[in-house]
Amino acid sequence: MLRKILIANRGEIAVRIIRACAEMGIRSVAIYTEADRFGLHVKKADESYFIGSEPIAGYLNIYALVDLAAATGCDAIHPGYGFLSENAQFARVCKERGIIFIGPEADVIERMGDKTQARQAMITAGIPVTPGTEGNLENVEQALEAAEKIGYPIMLKATSGGGGRGIRRCDSSAELVKNYERVISEATKAFGSADVFLEKCVVNPRHIEVQILADSHGNTIHLYERDCSIQRRNQKLIEIAPSPQLDEAQRQYLGGLAVLAAKAVSYTNAGTIEFLLDENDRFYFMEMNTRVQVEHTITEAITGIDIVEEQIRIAAGLTLRFKQHEISRRGYAIQFRINAEDPQNDFLPSFGRISRYYAPGGPGVRTDTAIYTGYEIPPFYDSMLAKVIVNAMTWEDVIKRGERSLKDMGLFGIKTTIPYYLEILKHDDFQKANFNTGFIEKYPELIHYSNKLQPAELAKVIAAAMAAHTGL
């Protein structure tokens, strides 16, 4: 088993990995820039090291991170998600220096990170994919010609990267011309590659993904699916496991496809195969994420399997502890991404000091976060502050638990997406599990919620007003 792991990340996912290490008796090493000096992951790790004043550059310095891991006696590096988690060069440098990279092999990361290569691998394996170009586009003229053959609407996509960036829907040739250079610019800035391709747009699909685990001994299993259809501009907001929109036959079929896809590319460690489900109940491969997902928590809630612990065990060369027939699911789980954003102001980021915070509790409630009362949210990173995860035996009960938990959560001093999520939970279509990726756009009125203060916060405002009035 591994003895010491450097966590090449920050925030809640770093805290999550630190907790897994603690349960496994493994020492954890955190890293931080000046902006994260007072981060919770810095406080919780067994050791913490400063990696520079630049808020982002330190987390992306491959050679400095591997050197630090070697200097501090680490066996392995866990990349978390984001930053270098899907960087093949990072995995290669780790291997060259004798440090275990907790993830798949570098060539697999490279192959599956290139969407055109990933599509071709799936076609070869017999996995259904959406119609699209066989390779990358050379120019806008080639894009226009391909779009005419495929038929509008089409999706123009960056070949590298992910996270909903470098993607534009085009409903006409004029929109394709308008977006072509824009997507290339986004792709170059975000992923360092100008390569783009296009594929048929599946209008308002359901976004369904499957969690897989694979060891280095040829064993691959799936941990059922997650429904990520509630999203805005390709950014996931609410995730559900399992999907309340699938029947058992679809569930088994999709799990089998995911295992086949992973085996086709000799995948190891934890990964996610993402699919689109169209209005005719046809599944299409979308992409593979070669890392732990933000929403891994809900799969853990319904299966009882610690995915981060399994990642570490697999990286240590151990065999999977579970066979497919031993994996069972129980009830439903929902994850809410609590973002520091103002939904009523076009989701503008709301950075600043958290004046007061307390987590929701009670049966079937989990909160993954790195915030605390008095924490100053740095403006340099993703706006996600916390993940609230709830689980219950029925779909109706998990919705009620979600509503209770969001109301139970106290997070003051900034704007968050909590009140918006409460409106979504109350909507009839959501409660009937009748939604797709167009849900947010279909119901813009949900943004017009009341900003009424909670009783405790209202009392603070009244007290402050009275003190000002009396001159006290």
Question: Helical proportion?
Answer: 25-40%
How much of the residues is beta strand, in percent? 15-25%
Low-pLDDT segments:
none
Shape: globular
How many helices? The count is 16
Using DSSP, what is the number of strands?
A: 20
Mean pLDDT: 94
> How would you write the strand order of the largest sheet?
13-12-9-10-11-14-19-18
- How many whole angstroms does the radius of gyration measure? 22 Å
Structural class: alpha+beta
Question: What is the makeup of the main sheet?
Answer: 8 strands, antiparallel
Distance between the termini: 62 Å
Protein traits:
alpha+beta; 8-stranded antiparallel beta sheet; 5-stranded parallel beta sheet
Q: How does this structure look, described?
A:
It is a single chain. The chain is an alpha+beta fold. It contains 16 helices and 20 strands. The chain has helices at residues 11-24, 40-44, 62-71, 88-96, 106-113, 115-125, 140-150, 173-191, 248-264, 296-303, 307-315, 395-408, 418-426, 428-431, 439-442, 455-470; strands spanning 4-7, 27-32, 47-50, 76-78, 100-101, 154-158, 167-170, 196-200, 206-214, 220-232, 235-241, 269-277, 283-289, 332-339, 341-342, 348-349, 356-358, 365-369, 384-392, 410-412. α1 (11-24) links the parallel β1 and β2 (27-32). The model has no long low-confidence stretch (mean pLDDT 94).
